[in-house]
Amino acid sequence: MFPADFAYARAGSLAGALAQLDAAATAGDNVKVLAGGQSLLPMMKLRLATPATLLDIGDLAELKDIAADGGQLRIGALATYRDLQRDPRITAGFPAIADALTVLADPQVRARGTVGGALAHGDPAADLPPVLLALNARVTIASRAGTRTVALEDFLRGVFSTDLADDELVTAVTVPAAPAGQAYEKFAHPASHLPLAGACTVIEVQGKAITGTRVAVTGIAPRAFRIDLPQRDLASRSVSALRAELADGDSAGGPELDAMLAGALEAAMAAAGAEPLADQHASGPFRVHLAAVMARRALARALSRADAPAGADE
Amino acid sequence: MPDVDVDVDVTVNGVPRRARVPARTLLVHFLRDNLRLTGTHVGCDTTQCGACTVALDGVAVKSCTVLAAQASGHEVTTIESLAPDLAEITARGGTLAAAGSRAAGREPPASPEPVSLHPVQRAFWRHHGLQCGYCTPGMVMMIRQLLADNPDPTDAEVRHALAGNICRCTGYQNIVAAALDAAAELRGA
Ligand code: FES
Ligand code: FES
User: Fold this and answer.
1) pTM of the predicted model, to two decimals?
2) B50 alpha carbon – ligand 2 mean position (Å)
3) How far is it, in rounded angstroms, from Cα A227 to Cα B169?
4) Closest-CA residue of chain A to B48
5) Which of A121, A170, A217, B120 could form a disulfide with B182 if both were Cys (CB 3.0 to 4.6 A apart)?
């Protein structure tokens, strides 16, 4: 399989890439930015995407840096999944990101696929967006006119649709310091490895009390979305009560929590007017059910990390 | 119509190669059709099977999902570079077993283990890690990557590393055994 013909240009600098995008946007040219190409090239081979020009930004070293700034991490858009997996600041400080990377595609794809590419692609069933949503990530976007930063929450729009304009590039993703209680769980399609449903949970614990719970899910709606569980749902439980409830895994404590989580997901989708995704692999209600189960499992794993001393996990 | 051709200037197995090809040319087709390096296989063409695995700047990737143009200015390593003298001999029609022995300066023994293969390839030989052999170049290239990253993997880690490599023949058991044995040999254990 070949993609349809296209002209190929390789950007030599970020400024050059932005100038080229600006000119193309003005002229109305159909230009696609090529980063790692692990989503775009398969789509082009299937002729689901037929850009006239590919602008390859893959060699822009200035977009590959991962820099720590206090507890926050600034991840260059061209950092690959493999780069992240091998970065101790990720594995130590953001175990939910590490979880997602472990189950994302395969090693060869992780060696090419980039963080910025994944976000700009806007796939409704991708592993990283829910994790970055739950972690309150912000996206830095550049154009010839300047730079802006937007919360990932506002960046994701719908199926393959984002806040990115034609003359803009994602240059970085910034993740603020996060509590240790975080985890990602997915139910993967066995052939594609894509999540039929995936959920990331971040739980804040102070002493014996749960002070906050964020859950973000993927695969069940046109975009990854996030719910902040109301106090009455989880925070009223003490840590030990919740731990006891989760200890029985899929049997005893499961169904009640699953129903609560599924209810919260459905309510959030209804409030946003989002139709559940459904296809030959899984119906809408089944995906919601799976997402709730994944969220509960992520909650159990996050809780086990919440007060474990650093490095004692797993 | 804009120009849809592109100059590709790439170092393959240490040798600088250059060609002008349509920009849509995939790296795997560039290797096979332009450079006649047919050791890298195309199994699925859809980023699933891993038969097309090569190293790009030293890291295993699926060459059916990289444009030849993207590799321009970079370094590609293919299966042919792992046992270069044998690749040379088999390209002239010799058998691998005979080639292995000859490369080692010996007469072909009755049940030979080719001595100048890469340790991962030799382990495949010992453990019967292949049947039809179609997936093998990709398996070997991926295991080579795994052992560079993690010299002492567990059985589970080998299987996890091979998540992107499909074999329709062996059932993976002997491939995993070969990977573990090669790891031990490379560690000097
Ligand atoms: S041919 Fe490239 S992954 Fe199958
Ligand atoms: S040996 Fe036949 S596909 Fe693996």
Assistant:
1) 0.92
2) 11
3) 46
4) A192
5) B120
